Task: inverse folding
């Protein structure tokens, strides 16, 4: 199993550009989540999904969209990037909603 | 929502000594408390967890204790080794909220050889 994979590893965007961060898992996990990690602030939940077709907002959802059309994939979309979205983004998945497995992260810089 | 506080933010110990990291949470309904280890440039990795119906759990050199009355839980690492050096995060979750986890701000642990 590849586990949780994220692409790209690094990305630089200009303010106002859009992009999609990809996340995939091959463990048949129903639960998937997106977090952002900023210095001194731990990880904060952006959006999460409890199964295909079901998504909900987390702690910091503004400026981000998600969809979950398959069990395997959970992309995160930035519609109009802002410098405040400069962060490291982690995707995680879980079989039961308890033990989470994290991907390697995407480091995003918005200039 | 839930608020998780974590202390200390940095911790240095001599190899072989013990390390303790403490977290408090605000929502008494939270019932699952995992601890993650994050090495530089990598994603967090679950190292141990505890549910609210258990007071203590051990796995080799690491242990977690939970005091539901005081709403705090702690990570204990004994016989520390240089490879234990990393950032450690605590988190709290309420199982009936689907998958909403609230994380502490992290503790950077350095084990000095």
Result:
């Amino acid at each position: 199993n590849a586990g949780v994979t994220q692409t790209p590893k690094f990305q630089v965007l200009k303010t106002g550009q859009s992009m999609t961060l990809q996340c995939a898992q091959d463990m048949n996990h129903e639960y998937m989540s997106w977090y952002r990690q900023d210095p001194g602030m731990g990880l904060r939940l952006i959006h999460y999904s409890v199964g295909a077709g079901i998504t909900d907002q987390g702690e910091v959802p503004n400026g981000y969209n998600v969809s979950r059309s398959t069990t395997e994939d959970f992309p995160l979309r930035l519609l109009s990037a802002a410098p405040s979205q400069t962060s490291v983004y982690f995707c995680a998945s879980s079989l039961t909603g308890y033990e989470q497995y994290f991907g390697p992260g995407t480091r995003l810089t918005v200039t | 929502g839930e608020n998780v506080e974590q202390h200390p933010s940095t911790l240095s110990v001599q190899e072989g000594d013990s390390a303790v990291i403490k977290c408090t949470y605000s929502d008494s309904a939270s019932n699952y408390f995992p601890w993650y280890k994050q090495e530089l440039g990598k994603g967090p990795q679950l190292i141990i967890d505890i549910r609210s119906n258990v007071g203590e759990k051990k796995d080799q050199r690491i242990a977690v204790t939970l005091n539901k009355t005081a709403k705090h839980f702690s990570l204990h690492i004994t016989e520390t080794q240089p490879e234990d050096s990393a950032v450690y995060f605590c988190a709290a979750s309420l199982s009936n909220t689907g998958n909403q986890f609230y994380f502490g701000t992290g503790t950077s642990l350095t084990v000095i050889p």
Summary: The interface with chain B takes residues 4, 31-33, 35, 40-45, 48-50, 56, 58-59, 90, 92, 94, 97-105 of chain A (CB under 8 Å).
